[in-house]
Amino acid sequence: MPSAYQQLTDVFTRLAHLDHASTYLTWDQMVMMPEQGIERRSQTLAELAALRHAQLSNDALGDWFDEAQATATGDTVASVREMRRQWDLSRVLPAELVKQQIMAGAKCEHAWRTQREHNDWDGFLVNFREVVALAREEARIRQSAAPDQFDTPYDALLDLHCAGDTSELISEVFTALKAVLPDMISTLSQRETTGAFNDNDHYPIEAQKALSEALMAQLGFDFSAGRLDVSVHPFSTGGRGDARITTRYRDNEFMDALLATAHETGHASYESGLPADWALLPVGGSRNMSIHESQSLLFEKQLLLAKPFLAFLTQLIHQHLPDSRQYDADTLWRHATVVKPSFVRVEADEVTYPLHVILRYEIESALINGDMEPDAIPTVWDEKMQQYLGLSTGNNHKLGCLQDIHWTDGAFGYFPSYTLGAVNAAQLFHAMTEQHTDWEQRFADGDTSFVRAWLSEHIWQRGSFLSSQELMVQATGETTNAQHLINHLRARYL
Amino acid sequence: MPSAYQQLTDVFTRLAHLDHASTYLTWDQMVMMPEQGIERRSQTLAELAALRHAQLSNDALGDWFDEAQATATGDTVASVREMRRQWDLSRVLPAELVKQQIMAGAKCEHAWRTQREHNDWDGFLVNFREVVALAREEARIRQSAAPDQFDTPYDALLDLHCAGDTSELISEVFTALKAVLPDMISTLSQRETTGAFNDNDHYPIEAQKALSEALMAQLGFDFSAGRLDVSVHPFSTGGRGDARITTRYRDNEFMDALLATAHETGHASYESGLPADWALLPVGGSRNMSIHESQSLLFEKQLLLAKPFLAFLTQLIHQHLPDSRQYDADTLWRHATVVKPSFVRVEADEVTYPLHVILRYEIESALINGDMEPDAIPTVWDEKMQQYLGLSTGNNHKLGCLQDIHWTDGAFGYFPSYTLGAVNAAQLFHAMTEQHTDWEQRFADGDTSFVRAWLSEHIWQRGSFLSSQELMVQATGETTNAQHLINHLRARYL
């Protein structure tokens, strides 16, 4: 008779195989699938999700968890804990609510694609009220199920994306950033910007692809265990043995593609570097989105834009794109570090980006905790944009509260991970460079192996054995601390 | 309470979704996946196969089948019949035998990859004896389960690939071909061959890809519902809404890639043209491999190599590959229709190919029916090669009985479909051109729409409602008849 723990790992191993299927079928849908494939693909992904849910939410696992928790020792303790977390999360919501959410979210997101184009806030609001009402209900149920764990309903949604990062911690981090960034931005945005690139520059896409692959190789990416493709929005999926990342190319500009490539290589390196022995179990998975985003931003903002590394990269660029030789490393660095307040989060630089996130965090936490109604969003959005970035959205909702997809299907609690990730990235990079004082020389030589080794030891190999904040404390000596991002931005920009 | 038929279609719809997942994950494995992805991918495909088997082989379906068979009318009769066929096929073998076959097949195939290189028949024989013993056991059990249906054990294996085409029919067809082809070949192989292409020809792969896509468009392929990629061995998978085909390119020769593209477009057109209303159920699937291969060979051999169409295609070739203008349509046609006996089936021309298949059919049917032992294969192979093609294999097993993968994992009963497909293709093409007497003019204009319309009506839209031979009778007035292939070959080559 197999042990309770063995029974559980058998179930979760089967779930890992179903997840593998969904992961690569979704990649295929985003990158390869012809348009008419969507109907059958959607049906199949729904079937796999239903199979997953049926296997995971099984009541029978309860006895196995009780027995496994009573007998677990060593690494198994965390393994049982993370399996149980998945089981609990899958069972807490009534099936009827989940179904209503899927339908309301799909309806709202579908209509949003048109409403955004037409700046139609009133039309959006009709669907969005339902999405918010259901998310509030979800948050209430999740908080009630674990009142000791969650101080507010919003904390219960945060737990789905930023598990371990509470609204108390986030508010502290964000308050520190708000105290510094607006002034820093008004100083920086008065500087004259001298970017590279002209409209008649032309960099062949095939050569840009080879350049991106050369950068990935320099960052330690193993092409026998992954690939690079093109998609409308760059993303990363898969992991150990088969990491798939995408970027996008523009004919007359090559820096954006390289930054996106470095960013996604960071995500992929994390997934590929997770502990092989635990690959099929939850405890072997990535910790949360704040940690995930710290890996991508560390590769993109800390590593690639470190002046010594960019100087090395500039040589690679000049080799692959002969026409780029008109731009030296300094010019490319200045181009990639222009600071300028703008309306759109995804186009924001690293100094203004946190304020876009803080604005969304303040609105979504108030929405979920019942301190604000959806109707008030445009006014509050405009006020905060003026206050934080000195820009008025007015009634241009397309560049304001209708710009993001996240809220349309109810993904509240995700936005903070972008800025927690930026803080964590600066904090981890600081700790790493304190231990590797020759980092600038190494970067100048294109050597990134010590970065991978350090991250592997302190983050990747730890999977989900520790909480996100335990992970940060063990790696850096402290919990997520805004001062590290502030120091980084001051050092780079002031 | 849903009807028994509804319960059954619910089960088979879920199976169709699992099949969709396996289909595109396998395509990804063949075309996109990096090498280190294989372990997790294999585990996932095994898990999906196990889920499929568990859902299909369920005893509980028996009562539903009994009730559905008693109440079915119209199209539903065939639908229930084809679902039941799947259910029966999935249940007839003991699980232990299936497991032994998978292990013995995997072991034999894995070792074969090296043994073939080393011409190691004796080493191969050790594993292969086990594969044959298990296949004989499978055939015996399948025949015992349906003694009225199968005259011989081998017929029960034929049923897995060429359902509806009995060994009696096959022997009749093959006897007719054997009576004619050896003489035809000895006449043709005395002719001087004047192929196109020189070693220093150079046709850029990107341009060849655009040419293949132009050919596919000319053959009616819809790129909003499918795509073309590259793989080591060309293949076709997927279907309606998302057909995936592959070809392969050589730098100094473009005809092979075009022929492979046409071949796979034929397979894909069949799968994409199956009845949409029955897409998720077995009766909406393709009939058998003899019919499938008839569609690919009709596109490749009958259509593309028809002189008027090749003349049209030559214009396309000249447009896409300016360096090809040194070769006119006649030269390309002669290049693609060289007849020459050779050792390797997959490289054989359409005149010698059937004899490669007949040789394998005679050996594998004798093996399975217990009329021959595996030890005798090399001797019999050599004798038949001399008799049919005038070539002696001697002890060169690499170019003889070790050349194919099929037998290594026990796929007996598949080979006949290649030549039944060639006969069916000639027979269908004959029937179609009798109705469309202006076919040569249409081909000269690049018009293939009437071919698709005719095949859609007579083959594609019929799914698995009819047996393979009923299908041939309704489309052409007779069962599979070797004379049509003989007439085609005489007309083209003599």
Protein architecture, described:
The structure is a homodimer of 494-residue chains. With 494 residues, the first copy, chain A, is mainly alpha-helical. Chain A folds into 2 domains: 1-91; 101-494, Neurolysin, domain 3 (Orthogonal Bundle), CATH 1.10.1370.30. Chain A is 63% helix and 3% strand. In chain A, strands 1-3-2 form a 3-stranded mixed sheet, sandwiched between helices. In chain A, β2 (236-239) and β3 (242-247) form a beta hairpin. The radius of gyration of chain A is 23 Å and the shape is globular. Chain A binds chain B through residues 14, 17-18, 20-21, 24-25, 28, 32-41, 43-44, 46-48, 51, 222-227, 238, 240-242, 279, and chain B through 14, 17-18, 20-21, 24-25, 28, 32-41, 43-44, 46-48, 51, 222-227, 238, 240-242, 279.
